[in-house]
Design a protein that fits this description.
By secondary structure, the protein is mostly helical. The chain has helices at residues 13-22, 33-42, 58-66, 77-92. Helix 1 runs antiparallel to helix 3. The protein is globular.
Length: 97
Protein backbone atom coordinates (compact mmCIF):
# COMPACT_ATOMS: atom_id res chain seq x y z
CA UNK A 1 0.00 0.00 0.00
CA UNK A 2 2.69 2.51 1.02
CA UNK A 3 2.74 5.72 -1.00
CA UNK A 4 0.52 4.58 -3.85
CA UNK A 5 -2.83 6.32 -4.25
CA UNK A 6 -5.33 4.30 -2.27
CA UNK A 7 -7.65 4.03 -5.24
CA UNK A 8 -5.71 0.95 -6.32
CA UNK A 9 -8.76 -1.24 -6.11
CA UNK A 10 -7.42 -4.39 -4.49
CA UNK A 11 -6.08 -2.68 -1.36
CA UNK A 12 -8.13 0.51 -1.40
CA UNK A 13 -9.08 1.76 2.07
CA UNK A 14 -11.94 3.50 0.28
CA UNK A 15 -13.35 0.01 -0.32
CA UNK A 16 -12.20 -1.70 2.85
CA UNK A 17 -13.50 0.91 5.31
CA UNK A 18 -17.14 0.87 4.15
CA UNK A 19 -17.03 -2.92 4.41
CA UNK A 20 -15.70 -2.76 7.97
CA UNK A 21 -18.33 -0.26 9.11
CA UNK A 22 -21.33 -1.70 7.27
CA UNK A 23 -20.52 -5.40 7.38
CA UNK A 24 -21.32 -5.62 3.67
CA UNK A 25 -19.11 -5.83 0.62
CA UNK A 26 -19.05 -2.61 -1.40
CA UNK A 27 -20.59 -3.15 -4.81
CA UNK A 28 -21.84 -6.59 -3.84
CA UNK A 29 -24.48 -6.24 -6.56
CA UNK A 30 -21.75 -6.02 -9.23
CA UNK A 31 -21.08 -9.56 -10.34
CA UNK A 32 -18.35 -9.17 -12.97
CA UNK A 33 -15.04 -7.33 -13.27
CA UNK A 34 -16.28 -5.76 -16.49
CA UNK A 35 -19.36 -4.32 -14.80
CA UNK A 36 -17.23 -3.13 -11.85
CA UNK A 37 -14.92 -1.24 -14.21
CA UNK A 38 -17.87 0.23 -16.06
CA UNK A 39 -19.65 1.44 -12.92
CA UNK A 40 -16.65 2.54 -10.86
CA UNK A 41 -14.15 3.74 -13.43
CA UNK A 42 -16.35 4.95 -16.28
CA UNK A 43 -19.49 6.05 -14.38
CA UNK A 44 -17.69 7.23 -11.21
CA UNK A 45 -19.98 5.24 -8.87
CA UNK A 46 -18.66 5.26 -5.30
CA UNK A 47 -19.44 3.17 -2.21
CA UNK A 48 -22.44 4.29 -0.18
CA UNK A 49 -21.86 5.83 3.25
CA UNK A 50 -22.45 3.24 5.98
CA UNK A 51 -25.43 4.30 8.10
CA UNK A 52 -23.33 4.19 11.28
CA UNK A 53 -20.99 6.93 9.98
CA UNK A 54 -22.27 10.50 10.17
CA UNK A 55 -21.50 12.57 7.07
CA UNK A 56 -18.95 14.68 8.93
CA UNK A 57 -17.18 11.78 10.65
CA UNK A 58 -13.45 11.64 9.92
CA UNK A 59 -13.69 8.04 8.72
CA UNK A 60 -16.29 9.00 6.09
CA UNK A 61 -14.20 12.00 5.08
CA UNK A 62 -11.20 9.68 4.76
CA UNK A 63 -13.19 7.33 2.52
CA UNK A 64 -14.26 10.26 0.34
CA UNK A 65 -10.68 11.50 0.05
CA UNK A 66 -9.61 8.04 -1.13
CA UNK A 67 -12.08 8.47 -4.00
CA UNK A 68 -11.23 12.08 -4.95
CA UNK A 69 -12.04 12.65 -8.64
CA UNK A 70 -8.51 13.93 -9.27
CA UNK A 71 -6.27 10.89 -8.83
CA UNK A 72 -3.37 13.09 -7.68
CA UNK A 73 -5.47 14.42 -4.78
CA UNK A 74 -6.45 10.99 -3.46
CA UNK A 75 -5.10 9.91 -0.11
CA UNK A 76 -2.28 7.43 -0.11
CA UNK A 77 -2.83 4.37 2.02
CA UNK A 78 -0.31 5.69 4.55
CA UNK A 79 -2.21 9.00 4.85
CA UNK A 80 -5.48 7.10 5.25
CA UNK A 81 -3.79 5.16 8.05
CA UNK A 82 -2.77 8.47 9.68
CA UNK A 83 -6.41 9.61 9.59
CA UNK A 84 -7.56 6.36 11.18
CA UNK A 85 -4.90 6.58 13.87
CA UNK A 86 -6.23 10.05 14.69
CA UNK A 87 -9.71 8.55 15.10
CA UNK A 88 -8.35 5.89 17.45
CA UNK A 89 -6.48 8.49 19.49
CA UNK A 90 -9.40 10.92 19.80
CA UNK A 91 -12.27 8.46 20.18
CA UNK A 92 -10.18 6.19 22.37
CA UNK A 93 -9.63 9.17 24.67
CA UNK A 94 -13.40 9.70 24.92
CA UNK A 95 -13.68 12.75 22.68
CA UNK A 96 -16.00 12.82 19.70
CA UNK A 97 -15.07 13.80 16.14
Amino acid sequence: MGGEPCIEYTQNPGLKLPQIFSGRLPYEEILTDELFLQRVVEQDVRPARPACLPEKHIVWKTIQECWAPNRKKRLTASRAEDHLNLVLETEGAGTST
